[in-house]
Amino acid sequence: MSTAAPTFISAPDMLAHWQGHRRLTRRVIELFPDDKLFTFSLGGMRTFGELANELLFMAAPMAHGLATLDWKGYEPKGGKSKSEVLALWDQSTKDVDKYWAPIPAGRFQETITSFGQYTGPGHLQVLSVVDNEVHHRGQGYVYLRALGIAPPAFWER
To answer: Which residues, including other chains, have CB under 8 Å from residue 14's CB and lie 6 or more apart?
Structure first.
């Protein structure tokens, strides 16, 4: 009798799910007026440009770290304008795909410490990054609505 836990979702399916979220978040970035991405906020929250940059500092570095266990070898950059953020987002998306492929299957079950501070199984590390993106995208939806802009349907990934 095998003691291995059954796989709930395959690595390729998890990547497809994550990239669906990334496509949706990109659409939110696109909807922001150029002059509001780094200036508009509510209730003391950071601007959506700052939040998008945070996501850039997490996505590809997480995939790289899971693949290599090197948490400093991928140096992400943040943008200062909407066009820079979108270009960096597109590169980050390609990098997630590139680094995802060589992640050893067992790595998702291993306990690892990412970025020198977050310890847990690899699959929870990835889910945490996705959860953070969904959370920040929700903030972006609030900002867009406050600006009179209809956000994209959350289920259209």
So the answer is: 123, 126
Q: What is the pTM of this model?
A: 0.92
Q: Are 141 and 28 in contact (CB under 8 A)?
A: yes
For 12-29, how does the pLDDT look when each residue is reduced to its tens digit (9 = 90+)? Answer: 999 999 999 999 999 999
Tokens of residue 112, six digits: 């690892």
Q: Is the pLDDT of residue 7 over 80?
A: no
Rounded to whole angstroms, the Cα distance separating 146 from 123 reads 35
**How far apart (Å, rounded) are the C-alpha atoms in residues 83 and 30?**
9
Cβ pair 48, 156 in contact under 8 A:
no
Which of 2.130.10.10, 2.60.40.1180, 1.20.120.450, 3.40.190.10 would CATH assign to domain 11-146? 1.20.120.450
